[in-house]
Amino acid sequence: MHVKWDDYEQNERKRIEINISHLEQGVNFVDIRTAYIDEGIVIGKGTTIYPCVTLEGNVKIGENCIIGQNTRIVDSTIGDDTEIQSSVVIESKIGNHASIGPFAHIRPDSDIGDNCKVGAFVEMKNSNLASGAKAPHLAYIGDADIGRDVNLACGVVFVNYNGSQKFRSVVKDGAFVGCNVNVVSPVVIEEDAYIAAGSTVTKDVPAGALCVAREREHIIKGWVAKKGILKKK
Questions:
Q1: pLDDT of residue 233
Q2: What domain range includes position 221?
Q3: Which of 24, 89, 125, 156 is most deeply buried (CB count within 10 A of its CB)?
């Protein structure tokens, strides 16, 4: 499809006019020429928009937020004092004083509460994080309800799909889920339970319990030299 230059210039003028209207309402821009904001979007005073931010559809952003470079937000609501860095947020809700990214992917029907952290390379889908919950890095949270002040460590995966059906899991308030844990849905991890690193959880875990679900470690001395597998020919 051929786009006329006059149409392009008109669209660019309209885009800058929208950005200027936000500037006049107290929104800060690092580079007002490189923000792409649909008409009708609401942005609170004191919020800073960095270069190459795209805001599409029905978006509402609170006051004093930081929307970092290369962030895309579609049909979502963001609370006050929240920071989003280089991430994608689609059809979701994020509360106040939250930290998102960099490189997080918040997919539709996700609800992230106040004071939550969803860090680098974390993907969420159709899930809820209650206030104070954290997933700092490298996790997949799919079809899960995460309670208050839960910590999901590096490499946690909610195994929500068996090839034909999707299932939901619950992690209740105060629980700790260690590194490289697979939560095979549907399971319920009760309050203040502790899941040891490297576990694959397939059964409900009682409140305050330690769950260790991994193979016992075996060490065979001299095995490498005997096999010679590390020797280069």
A1: 61
A2: 15-227
A3: 89
Per the annotation, the verdict on 2 as an active-site residue is no
Is 211 within the bounds of a domain?
yes
Residue 227 has pLDDT above 90, yes or no: no
Evaluate if residue 6 carries a pLDDT over 80. no
Catalytic one of 2, 97, 105, 137: 137
Q: How many C-beta atoms surround the C-beta of residue 86 within 10 A? A: 18
Tokens of 33: 């020429």
pLDDT number for residue 232: 66
CATH of the domain at 220: 2.160.10.10
Q: Is the dihedral of CA 125, 98, 188, 205 positive or negative?
A: positive
211 DSSP β-pair partners: 195
| SS3 label, residue 155 | coil
Tell me, yes or no, whether 31 lies in a domain: yes
Instruction: Categorize the per-residue pLDDT at 90 as very low, low, confident or very high, splitting at 50, 70 and 90.
Output: very high
Residue 168: CB atoms within 10 A of its CB come to: 16
